[in-house]
Design brief:
Elements lengths: L1 E8 L8 E4 L6 E7 L4 E8 L5 H12 L7 E7 L4 H15 L3
Parallel strand pairs: 4-5
Antiparallel strand pairs: 1-4, 2-3, 3-5
Protein name: Malonate decarboxylase acyl carrier protein
InterPro entries: Mal_deCO2ase/Cit_lyase_ACP, Malonate_deCO2ase_dsu
GO cellular component, one term: cytoplasm
């Protein structure tokens, strides 16, 4: 088990919070809560050791050229593929009203 932390520049926090996915299914779950203005913080707890660079590239592609809302995102991963990670994040963003 490995815990990773990432930060990106952000705008203002969203009003909502959400939980999408279910780690018990062998997938992953994503909890999104309002964060501190100007900062997007992501914490990943993953069962896949040595995957920090893969996560960094995934987030960099998602947030490149954007100013996302200030959020605290907690991800609990049990070996999900990058496509599933992106899908769950997009589901969470839709739930809180961010496109």
């Amino acid at each position: 088990m490995e815990t990773l932390s990432f930060e990106f520049p952000a705008g203002q926090p969203p009003r909502g919070r959400t939980l999408v996915g279910c780690v018990g299914s062998g997938d992953l779950e994503v909890l999104i809560e309002p964060g501190q203005p100007g900062k997007l913080s992501i914490t990943v707890q993953t069962s896949v050791n040595g995957s920090e660079q893969r996560w960094q590239h995934l987030f960099a592609r998602m947030f490149d050229g954007q100013v996302p809302p200030a959020m605290d995102i907690d991800i609990h991963d049990f070996g999900a593929t990058p496509g599933v990670v992106r899908l769950r994040l997009e589901q969470g963003f839709e739930e809180i009203g961010h496109d």
